[in-house]
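Example 9 (inverse folding). The structure is encoded as follows.
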């Protein structure tokens, strides 16, 4: 699979279980200027909710990826540019490192040409993803850097994802992950609510991921984060 994310500054994570702001449509979502849409989510995600988002986005030319939270919700749809499958480096339950992945590969016919993984380092203990995966979120900057290096060097990961979902993360820890990587792309997601947050994380990562803001405040707010991520990266 080629690595389109190498050119991205910003990704919008659409939770299929959450509504858009009143009056906004996926046409507006696709016009925010984001570089790609990841259809993700943790709780209550079903494949028909996924399909609804895919159908609403398929007529636009924004790259569209599914980030499946478990094998049962993987949607087989040519409208998807591909799948970005999390591997949770600091999960307390091995199911979220290789267990679910083994089951997916055992029962499904995976399209490896369109499938890549994201080596997640989950750092917000309040996030659903932390609870679901029993993640050990107590990681210092040198721990985070070491996980990033293991992901790239030992596990050959192209994407490392520092996940603070629901809160703005510690910039030092994000920078530590970024400094530990040679070729791999660092995604940062969590609590980005405005231009300044996006700029701050754009300076320390390669791709800024925005999720809840879309559902809480809408597309204009998201547009601000696209600018902030771009400007922060350009200032590096
Ligand atoms: C092997 C396959 C096909 C799937 C398993 C993939 C894995 C390891 C999933 C575990 C991590 C996970 C649940 C990722 C889903 C995307 C994500 C991080 C959603 C954000 O969830 P939160 O923001 O914590 O939840 P809410 O915002 O919904 O409360
Ligand atoms: O919802 P937020 O806090 O923006 O986080 C985005 C993404 O990292 C969630 O997986
Ligand atoms: Mg969330």
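The amino acid assigned to each position is listed next.
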């Amino acid at each position: 699979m080629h690595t389109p994310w190498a050119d991205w500054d910003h990704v919008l994570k659409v939770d299929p279980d959450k509504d858009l702001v009143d009056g906004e449509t996926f046409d507006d979502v696709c016009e925010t200027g984001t570089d790609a849409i990841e259809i993700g989510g943790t709780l209550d995600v079903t494949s028909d909710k996924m399909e609804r988002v895919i159908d609403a986005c398929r007529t636009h030319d924004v790259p569209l990826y599914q980030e499946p939270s478990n094998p049962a919700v993987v949607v087989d749809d040519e409208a998807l540019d591909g799948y970005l499958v999390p591997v949770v480096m600091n999960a307390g339950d091995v199911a979220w490192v290789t267990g679910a992945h083994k089951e997916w590969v055992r029962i499904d016919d995976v399209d490896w040409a369109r499938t890549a993984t994201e080596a997640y380092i989950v750092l917000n203990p309040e996030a659903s993803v932390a609870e679901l995966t029993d993640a050990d979120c107590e990681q210092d900057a040198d721990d985070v850097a070491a996980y990033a290096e293991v992901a790239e060097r030992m596990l050959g990961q192209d994407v490392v994802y520092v996940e603070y979902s629901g809160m703005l993360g510690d910039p030092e820890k994000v920078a530590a992950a970024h400094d530990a990587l040679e070729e791999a792309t660092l995604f940062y997601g969590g609590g980005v609510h405005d231009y300044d947050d996006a700029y701050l994380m754009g300076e320390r990562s390669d791709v800024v991921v925005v999720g809840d803001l879309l559902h809480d405040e809408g597309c204009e707010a998201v547009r601000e984060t696209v600018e902030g991520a771009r400007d922060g990266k350009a200032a590096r």
